[in-house]
Specification:
mainly alpha, 2 strands, flat
Amino acid sequence: MKKQFLIICLVMVSIIYGEESDDYIENNFLNEKIYFPKRTSNYINDLLNRNDMESYYELSKAYIKLGKKEAARSYLKEYEKTSKEYLKIADIYEELEEYEKEIKMIEKYFLEATLQEKEMIYDYIKKIVEEKKIDLDISRFKVTRYEKLRNLLEEEKEYMAYYNKENWTEEENFKIKKDLLSLNLKKNKAQKELYFKLASKYEKLEYMYSVIEDISDLNGFYKYFELAEELGLIVKFKDNYEKLYYLKWKDAEEEYKDLEKEILDEEISKGKEAKRDYNKLYKLYIINHNMKLLFNLALENEEYFYEFIVRNIKNKKYKEILIRNFIEKYPKSNKLIKLKEITIKNETDEMKKIEIINKVLENKFSSVLFDEKLRILEKMEQESEYEKELKNHIFMDYQDEKYIKKYIKLLKNQNRIEELYTELQKLNDKKYFFDIAIDNNYKIPSQYKKELIEYYMQNKMYEELMEYKKDLTYEQYAILYDEKQYQFIQSAREKYPLKKEWMDIGELKYIYFNRNFDKYDEDTINKVLDKSDKSDVEIYYLANEVPILPRYLKMVKPFFEKIFTGQNNYVRYGEFKEKAK
C-alpha cells in the first residue's frame, strides 16, 4: 500500500544477517562478484520450505506478482489467522483489489492507532469509498471531538482551551471525568477545577481521600474532613486510626483519649511475649506523637529504633548513646553507615572526623562520608592529600563520574593537561580522555578507534566520524541512516551491500548495489553473448540492452525468460515483454 498514512503507520524493518538476504544472492558478471535477485523457483521453494507465518505473507505477495491470485489468497488466509500485522494484510488486499476486506483490516489497526494516524486513515478510507463507489458508512472512522480533547490530556493549557470552546454532552463529560482522574490533579490546577465542576459531591470526597498519601498525611486528612463537612456528607473510617485523626480535627478530646487508650490497651498491654503489631503502634505514634510510645517501639523493633534516633532525638549526647546501643543490638544492620554519618556530623574535631570516616570506609564505601572527607581536606588546604584520595578512589576502587570530574577540575586548575591526558587513558570509560585529547589537540592512539567511533556517535560528531566511515558496524550505519546522515550511505552499501535500508536500486542500474554499473558497451555485450553458460545477471544484462541494440532481441529473449518473473520489483520482465512484441 503506497498511501501516505501507511508510510507513517507501517514500519517494516528487515534485518538481514550473513552474505545473503531473502531476495538476493551472490552472482557473477564476467567473473566479477555482484548481487542479484534469486530466480522465481528458488525464491518460492525457499519460502515453502520455511513454512512459517512470515513466509505465508511473502508467498501471497510473490503469487500476486506472478498473477496467481487464488494462490495468493490461500496463503494470505493462513497469514491472517494469527498475524496482528493488519496493515500488511490490508496491503495485500489492496493489490488483490478487494477493497472492503482491505478496509476491515485497516479498521482493526484503527482501534489502536494514534490520533494523527486515525485522521489519515479516515481520509484514506473516504477516498477509497468514493473512488470505488463502495456502499459503506465511514462515520466510525471519523475522529470525534472527545478523542481530540483526550489527546491533549497531558497539555493542560491546550486541553482547557479546547474544552472551553465546545459545549459537551453529559455522556462526553462522564468520559472526561474519568480521564481527568488519571492525572496528578495536585499539579494541574485548571484540570482539577474542571474535575470538581463535573464531579458529584460523592466523587469529590472520594477524590480527596484518594490523594491522602498515608497515615502521616495530617494535612490531607484535614482537607478531607473539611470537604465532607462542607458537602454535608458523613465520613466513613477505614480504621480506628483515621477516626483518631477525625476526633483530633473535631477537638473531641474525651472521645480521642478513650479511643487512644483502647488501641494502647489492645497492643502495649500484651506484654513482651505477645506478638505486637508494630505498624499499628507506629501509626498511633504518628497521630499522637507520644514519645513514650515510640521509645517502647524502639526497644523492640530495629526499624522504629532507627526512626526514633534519626527523627526525634534532639539532644546530641543522648543520640550518641542511643546510636551505640543500636550498634550493639543490631551489629549487622544496613543502617549502620547512616548512623555513623550522624555521629560524624555531630563531631566538631575535623581530624577526629577523618579518623572515624576512614574506619567506616575501610569496610564499606559511603559517598556522604567520602564527600565529607574531601570537604575537610579542601578546607584544610591539603591539596596533595585531596588529590591522592580522589586518584585512589577513581583508579583503584570506583570510577564514579562525580569524582572523575573533581579530579579533572583539580588538574585543569593547575594546568596539568599532559598528566590528565596520560592518567585518563586508564579509565574504562574513555570519554573523559577523548574530551581532554580533542579539546587540546592531542593525538588519540589507534588502539582506541572502536571507543572513539562510539564517542563520535554518541556526541553526534558526524564530521569527525567521516574519517572512520568504513569502520562502522551495521547498527551504527542504521543509526546514521535514521539520523539522515546520508554521507555515510555509500560506505554502508559497500560494506553491507544486501541491506535493504540503504539500497538505491534505480541509481545503481538494478544489478548490484556496492558500485555503479557502467558497462553498456558493445564489446561487453559480445563477451556476454559469447559465453556458453550465462549467469542470471548476464541474461538480465542482455535483456536490459534490448532498447539500445534491438538486433540482439531474438537472442536475448530465451535467456531472459528463465529469469524470475514476479517476486522482485527490480526485475523488469513486464517491461521487456512490451519491448519484445
